[in-house]
């Protein structure tokens, strides 16, 4: 049984199941969901808890099966927690988890909680995950995307009896907060707790939030790619500064942008050759969020403009590897900023402006 995170509270109020599987790569959301399940379990008499962390190929799955199939020594009911940090239980683990799932049926003395990282589609189609899903409840806990982050912050403020000022000022406050904590949901939670300690319930002004919230954003190159293709110039500048401050390798940032430019050029060439857009995207293995971004920006990008961007990416490749190029900054990060802004501006241009050559900002 699949359950959306927003449905968990209502589900737990109706009754506790014997098996829960939580998977995702956002530690805060995983922790909160697990805590909510444990809290209801404690209220219902599950007072003993054992934790088994799967590590290495020689992990003793027999101990897990024994814990789930035996009565607790010190309590009437127990929680058995299985943590698999890699998301790969192995052959023995796969068989054991299927047995764990079957044991959960009709078991009113043991609550089994399986914690996993984010799983790919192939893993979720495996027999062991299918058994966990069929015999219990599974929750997929995805990170909060940047577009949803202001709303998430507002909802968390409401939980602690606080809110931002209505209107444009309030939206500016939420956007400011989101910019400072993007990519670091645990830090966002801590900053919200700080606001609860510093200020009473009620309305919060921009100055109060600005004075309290630190710049604890964390970025990754894949989110940078989405921001560039979305034409979000201000966000791209912040992300590049953040990646530089975190010590991310210049060549990795360049590779990500260059791959996007190459993929755009291949799809553009396929379109100009008469290929339908869905077929061209599929052939270049472009899907998901990136597929939607490509569909939006390709009408804005001519083959000529993409040729210019490809040439610029070639130049920046040399710069981040220590070479110098006339009319380009000697600094790898400055060159990356310039390339990112060129692609960002091209992606943000109206479709009618796609014909001119891409202008590389100085």
Overall description:
The protein has 17 helices and eight strands. The protein is α/β, with parallel strands linked by helices. The chain folds into three domains: 2-140, P-loop containing nucleotide triphosphate hydrolases (Rossmann fold, 3-Layer(aba) Sandwich); 146-212, Helicase, Ruva Protein, domain 3 (Orthogonal Bundle); 221-353, Zinc Finger, Delta Prime, domain 3, CATH 1.20.272. Helix 4 links the parallel strand 4 (77-83) and strand 5. Helix 7 packs across helix 8. The radius of gyration is 25 Å and the shape is globular.
Keywords, please?
56% helix; 362 residues; Helicase, Ruva Protein, domain 3; Zinc Finger, Delta Prime, domain 3; single chain; 6-stranded parallel beta sheet; Rossmann fold; two-stranded parallel sheet; 11% strand; 3 domains; alpha/beta
Span between N and C termini? Answer: 55 Å
Q: Output the radius of gyration.
A: 25 Å
Main β sheet profile: 6 strands, parallel
CATH fold annotation of the largest domain: Rossmann fold
Q: How many domains?
A: 3
Mean pLDDT: 89
Strand order, largest beta sheet: 1-6-2-5-4-3
- In terms of DSSP E residues, the strand content is 5-15%
Outline the low-pLDDT stretches.
Answer: 352-356
Q: What's the gist of this structure?
A:
This protein is of the alpha/beta class.
